[in-house]
Amino acid sequence: MLTLLALLAVAQPETTSTAETSPVAETVAESGARPVRASLRLWGDATAEADFDGDNGSVQSSRAGADFEVGIPIGERSQLAIAAGTTGLFFDFGGDEGFGAGDPWDTVLEHTLGVGFSTRANEKWSYGGRAFVRSSGERGADFSDTMMFGVGGGFEYTFSEKFSAGPGFLVMSQLEDDVLVLPLVTFSWKISERWSAGTRVGTGSGLGAGGGVQYQATDSLAVFGGVGYQSHRFRLDEDGATPDGVGEVTGVPVTLGFTWTASPQVSLSARGGWMFAQEYTLDDEDGDELREIDADSAPFLGATLHFSF
């Protein structure tokens, strides 16, 4: 359902978005024999070393993940989605003193399992929602202390064959922090035969949101660009420098990239850009802030290999 099923999708590592066909729209369009569908994404990205502001230290980070989703048609207008994903976040801190000298954390593992439902009430209105559970913690963290839970949903109104939009929401627990309640407004706009625009929200790898445009250069090649926001919050090693503490990393990626569709079953995306407004936060086990520091903007590169079945 527009970005609604993407809202809690486990398969959304790219928080800067390009316009895509609504899953609910696809569900309705396939009103004939509708097979069960599955997708697998293998993805990764790396952000170059960045210096901390006002601190003799630096950080370099990278991510890699795998996400799997199955869409099961229900009747002529509805679909059940089951998704699972895993992500590794890798940090390399540097510096003789300050934030980076103590290696506040190392490798972080995130695992997410979600289930969703979407349906189209009529030719104009559709709705859907998802629930998910997620573990996010540094290696060595107590698994039971890494758990977070969330639900989300919303509506979409189809104004025309080219434009749809609607409100949504996300409610998500956070490690040693208040419950996140996030209102959303999403849209999908086919500007012309080749140009489109849209929004995306994802919780598969951290929490992210963004908007972007896409140009369909040929039948097999699309070029996209956008801006987004991403956040990872995770439990720290129970035997680490800050036992059972909480780390958080946020940033604003500005992205350009392309997607090459080799066949209906296989596509490859490559992207690059600049990560702005990087912020690193270290809290103790009760969620009280110990240190917050900004990092300079830095370039990043990434790629996604997508299989459809």
Describe the model.
The protein has 309 residues and is mostly beta strands. The protein has one domain (4-308): Outer membrane protein transport protein (OMPP1/FadL/TodX) (Porin). It is built from 2 helices and 15 strands. Strands 1-2-3-4-5-6-7-8-9-10-11-12-13-15 form a 14-stranded antiparallel beta barrel. Strand 8 (177-189) and strand 9 (195-202) form a beta hairpin. The protein is globular and about 60 Å long.
* Global shape: globular
Number of helices: 2
Question: Compute the gyration radius: what is it?
Answer: 20 Å
State the order of secondary-structure elements, H for helix, E for strand.
HHEEEEEEEEEEEEEEE
Helix content: under 10%
Can you identify the CATH superfamily?
A: Outer membrane protein transport protein (OMPP1/FadL/TodX)
What tags apply to this protein structure?
2 helices; 4% helix; mainly beta; globular; disordered N terminus; Porin; 309 residues
Summarize the entry for a quick read.
The chain has helices at residues 4-7, 23-29, and strands at 37-51, 58-74, 78-94, 107-120, 125-138, 147-158, 163-174, 177-189, 195-202, 207-216, 221-235, 246-263, 266-283, 289-295, 298-308. The chain is mainly beta and 309 residues long.
Topology:
Blueprint: H1 4-7, H2 23-29, E1 37-51, E2 58-74, E3 78-94, E4 107-120, E5 125-138, E6 147-158, E7 163-174, E8 177-189, E9 195-202, E10 207-216, E11 221-235, E12 246-263, E13 266-283, E14 289-295, E15 298-308
Antiparallel strand pairs: 1-2, 1-15, 2-3, 3-4, 4-5, 5-6, 6-7, 7-8, 8-9, 9-10, 10-11, 11-12, 12-13, 13-14, 13-15
